[in-house]
């Protein structure tokens, strides 16, 4: 959402750097890897070569990105920017060296969502959705079917819609004593899927 093209590029490179740093942190040290006998020595040697090559490639990409960051017009040789680069902090709030010490120089996800849309309902929805998207992607790692993850995401949206309907039409629901759980129309509308999900 930022109109400053230099800042867009600066944050873009920091975003990529953050991904590389996170991957590198979790990457195994090839010197510590031991063949447990489940694969052949040739396959194990190929695995070690792949780990080494990926590590080398990531380090080259990291150096390239740091060079790109250092030629950006926003770059200054100071501690604030050094910390931002060292941490791949693409969510930084300020590049200014006078930024208050002790304050976290990073936007929360909620604050970033508000930059996209100032409506508090949007940031609440985006935060709520991102939690479930991450949860669904983790829970469906071993899933052979794409359908279930799509259905899970749809259920989240339907549940949010259901909560909104109950809030918006609270008075009508009470006045007409509407029980959604007993309504065949509502059931067929919300749960138009297999009985196992009902």
Q: How is the main sheet built?
A: none
Number of helices: 8
> Mean pLDDT across all residues, rounded?
78
Structural class: mainly alpha
Helix and strand run: HHHHHHHH
Helix amount: 55-70%
Beta-strand content bin: under 5%
First-last Cα distance: 41 Å
Write the layout of secondary structure elements.
Layout: H1 5-26, H2 41-71, H3 79-86, H4 109-116, H5 120-139, H6 146-168, H7 170-175, H8 184-190
Helix pairs in contact: 1-2, 4-5, 5-6
Main features:
198 residues; 63% helix; mainly alpha; disordered C terminus; single chain; flat
Explained architecture:
- It contains eight helices and no strands.
- With 198 residues, it is mainly alpha-helical.
- Helix 1 (5-26) packs antiparallel against helix 2 (41-71) and helix 4 packs across helix 5.
- The longest helix is centred in the N-terminal third of the chain and has 31 residues, at 41-71.
- It is flat, with a radius of gyration of 25 Å.
- The protein starts with a helix and ends in an 8-residue tail after the last helix.
- Mean pLDDT is 78; it is low at 136-144 and 193-198.
